[in-house]
Specification:
single chain, mainly alpha, 434 Repressor (Amino-terminal Domain), two-stranded antiparallel sheet, 4 strands, elongated
């Protein structure tokens, strides 16, 4: 990850030594600096920020915020970090690792890297290189993240295929309610191919959700239409999918190729090929 070491002491004039703040204090000061940066960027006062934290249910008085921003406070709790991030409408990770605002951060004592890589470590997306790091333990530790990420991709794939079917059906002036594979109107040409792929998509989602369940993790929620297709909930009358069920910001993307998706997921346990492919 391109890590560097950082000294805890910096030479001063003559023989004197100026002792820099310890890592935990420096981390709190970094958070404080980002709180001030984002507060000023949002154009709000410390009083207004304090009021907003109260509205969120965890009041941080103005004096606490002022002491933090002026380095009179050497610690920041997790609760304070989260409520300040929410009050500022900023992802919490950016208060810890200011991506784009500095070239390196000390993520652990004497272990520095770029803010972007530090962000990846916090999100469970990038392997770190700290002393004693175990790649095998790391992969097992992030297992739930991998499974949930793949699940999200599979849901998006299903939505994208269904959206294509609806667009193609509209072009052929077909009135589409609930899309079913045995509908004779869909059994021809490219439209039929997409409906077949939609059926495979349901199978892939069902298999992946069974894997998540077998691992002992909570099953992610499904959009109502997909839950009906997987028979995880019963339809109420004739179910109709609306545009709200599809992430509007995604646009019309090519369906995700499942084999490529599986190949992009790093193996979790080397001696268990069947589980690793998911």
């Amino acid at each position: 990850m391109g890590y560097m070491t950082s000294s805890t002491e910096t030479p001063d004039s003559g023989d004197a030594q100026r002792v820099e703040p310890g890592w935990s204090t420096a981390l709190a000061r970094r958070v404080a600096g980002e709180v001030r940066y984002w507060r000023e960027k949002r154009g709000i006062s410390a009083v207004q920020l304090a009021k907003r934290t109260a509205e969120l249910g965890f009041h941080l008085p103005r004096s606490v915020i002022a002491n933090l921003e002026n380095n009179r406070r050497a610690t920041v709790s997790v609760a304070e970090l989260l409520v300040l991030a929410a009050a500022l409408d900023v992802p919490p990770v950016l208060l810890v690792v200011p991506v784009g605002r500095t070239s390196a951060v000390e993520v652990l004592p004497d272990t520095s890297t770029s803010p972007w890589r530090a962000r990846g470590w916090i999100h469970g997306a990038t392997e770190p290189e700290y002393s004693g790091f175990s790649a095998a333990a790391w992969q097992l530790g992030r297992r739930a993240i991998v499974l949930y990420d793949v699940h999200r991709y599979l849901v998006r794939e299903h939505q994208q295929i269904e959206r294509r079917i609806r667009q193609m059906a509209d072009q052929e002036h077909l009135v589409v309610g609930e899309i079913v594979a045995d509908d004779l109107r869909f059994g021809r040409g490219a439209l039929g191919d997409f409906v077949t792929e939609l059926t495979y998509s349901v199978d892939r989602l069902r298999a992946h959700r069974n894997l998540i369940k077998a691992e002992g993790f909570e099953l992610p929620e499904l959009p109502p239409g997909i839950a009906v297709a997987l028979k995880e909930i019963a339809p109420s009358g004739r179910h109709r999918r609306g545009s709200d069920d599809i992430e509007a910001s995604e646009g019309l993307l090519a369906p995700i190729v499942y084999e490529q998706l599986r190949a992009s997921v790093p193996p979790i346990v080397e001696d268990d090929d069947n589980r690793d492919r998911h």
